[in-house]
Amino acid sequence: MTSPNLIILYVKDPAESASFYRNLLNREPAVEAPNFVAFPLEGGFTLGLWRRSKVEPQPSAIGNRGEVAFMVEGENAVARHYEDWRQRGLPIAQELTELDFGPTFVVLDPDGHRLRVCEPDK
């Protein structure tokens, strides 16, 4: 069975985005090239950052049509992440709030990609 294990975000400047994600994830990339950076994550998943102008074939549109979600476990874990990321000065797109699926908030990376923090399904 084939399982997804890589998500790629198209970015204006991979070095700038790498700096953002290095700080956010508190880890170093495994690959760092002029047009592509890759951060291995837990569970065998990788986050790739590809220079938008070098993507082949070129995307047909630019915009927020999805999110990268970080599911965190533990009592008040979402609120703790919110305070940490707010203190770091990350741009908040959605303040800490309660939705149908529990507490959540959204920050933006340098290219406007939405990064949501929430609890895993129970």
TrEMBL record:
Residues 3-120 form the VOC domain. Pfam families: Glyoxalase (PF00903). The keyword Metal-binding does not apply. The keyword Lyase applies. Signal peptide: none annotated. InterPro entries: Glyas_Bleomycin-R_OHBP_Dase, Glyas_Fos-R_dOase_dom, Glyoxalase/dOase/EhpR, VOC_core. GO terms for molecular function: lyase activity. Keywords: Lyase. This is Catechol 2,3-dioxygenase-like lactoylglutathione lyase family enzyme. It comes from Rhizobium laguerreae.
